Amino acid sequence: MASHSFSYGTKADQALGLWVKLARVHALMLRLSARDINRYGLTQPQFAVIESLGHLGPMKMKVLGAKMLVTGGNMTVVVDNLEKAGLVERARCLEDRRATWIRLTEKGDGLFKKIFPQHAECVAGALSVLTAKEAGELSRLLKKFGMGLQEKFPDQLR
Amino acid sequence: MASHSFSYGTKADQALGLWVKLARVHALMLRLSARDINRYGLTQPQFAVIESLGHLGPMKMKVLGAKMLVTGGNMTVVVDNLEKAGLVERARCLEDRRATWIRLTEKGDGLFKKIFPQHAECVAGALSVLTAKEAGELSRLLKKFGMGLQEKFPDQLR
DNA sequence: TAGAGATAGTTTAAGTTTCAATTATACTGG
DNA sequence: CCAGTATAATTGAAACTTAAACTATCTCTA
Asked: Which one of A39, A111, B88, B154 is at 20 to 30 Å from B55 when CA atoms are compared?
């Protein structure tokens, strides 16, 4: 990108270059995905909550947050908005009264079943710019990358 | 991930799986990167602006926004905050009076020169969970992915 | 050359994100 | 048993993001 000015050693340069590419692809995919989701009146994080609950069943706020790599204070707002829309509901946890169960309402479950397959198609369409082999390889590398990060920086990643 | 409940065809499933992995790695990297940047009193997007200006020199709001894949309305706020901090400044563009040049102040340039190399090291450290060969392959795939998306969905990507 | 349409940047409103502080509850070692 | 500590969720403040509306300016064409 920057064809001039600075260089901080091959390794650091490569690393930054890769990070930029990763961020760029992520931003592009996020935009495509969000546009699709918006058509159903949901935001990206709202959809992520519905998707998690739809696939894995009711779970506590904390688990939901961990699944989304999002800090706690945040889930409250997202769930608040979904609750206002009548798509999820909170229920007291009896064994641990600090905790709260979140689950889809009937309406939420209906929405999930309706829009999820369409959204999956949308993502698949985007991914079709890669061959199956490339997608497989990319998937493998991303998995190793993610696991490696979790392992190497357990503290800095909360 | 979801070991049960739903399946929407191998292709869509794989696509979603890859998208989840990509989002996860991005979130992890973003967190590491942001923690590092915060030590210098900057947010991630503020740093991105300083980095662009530091590497490529003064540019207009629009170009800055495009470089960051961010909608226009947004740059205004980020630049506002950087201007308040005395790190960048606006200057009227004489040829086109709708446009504005953004450039680093002396203070902003000093900060850039000081923190950029350290941040590059931080990113390189994170990336070291992959071998050089893997990093090269990942970089290639991400590049192809990103270019492919831009080519296939020019409209949906603004 | 005047008017129509495009463009650069700002503003506004709603949502998301993080961090830090707070509340309520649970756990645990002396 | 109970004081100290840890945990689950919420709240509040500051920043970011988007989309849409708006202002000012430019450009192109009839």
From this structure: B154
